[in-house]
Specification:
By secondary structure, this protein is mainly alpha-helical. It has 8 helices and 4 strands, in the order ααββαβααβααα.
Length: about 280
Amino acid sequence: MQAQILRTPFAKLIQWFVPLAAILSFAAWMFVAPQGALGKLDAIGYAVCHRIDTRSFHIGERQLPLCARCTGEFFSAGVSLAFFALTAGKRSRLPTRGILVILILLFLAFAVDGSNSYLYLMKQTSDSLDSIPNLYIPNNTLRLFTGSGMGLAIASILFPIVHQTIWREVDDRPALDWKNLTVLVIGVILLDLAILTENTIVLYLAASISTLSVLTLLTIVFAILWMIMMHTDNSATSYRQLTLPLIAGFTLALLLIVGIDLLRFNLTGSWGGFPGLTG
């Protein structure tokens, strides 16, 4: 009883402090980020992506907030999480072994293409590294597709883990089955093909969804960490009880983005890609 009484003032303080911190962190992000809607999205992408111009899609002369690989990764992760939210409910079991093999293959494709692309970049930035071997010449199409596969894999693992962590009673069925995997893969491929048309409207949607997915994923991860730290994991019985952890996660996500933005801008003096990396 005494412990419960001692926790009550702290809990009330947290309920007031977290929303206030969210408002202040949002204000800090708005102040730090460049002007305009795409400028605000740039500030999110800037915290997680190298933003090399030649490795990005463009709306006219305007570079997207994320490079081609990160656009695919976070666009696909956001779309996949939305798909799971609509189709999987509170299902919390990880995929079956067969599906896990597919997800591992998607990860390996991401790793191979990313490594090959990085080695190619090293060759272009230094003449002394010309002898570095490459499997193939990297391109933005491969970056988009392998990034999208990684995003699908991330969402497929993250979704059930989140539900395993937050609910008192869970639906012990796989969140992803073969039917939904097929639908997701086909859907992601079609969306990637739409992005490759470089239609202005499609690229605006891709820029918005991919960068907001970065913020969403960070918010979810930090919300889960918050629940674990506050010893409220595996206790929720309704979505309303997730309000405070999500606000806390959103606050921490923004603080991380603002912190990285300020550090990187002070080091480089530019909202673009890292100086000297143009390959």
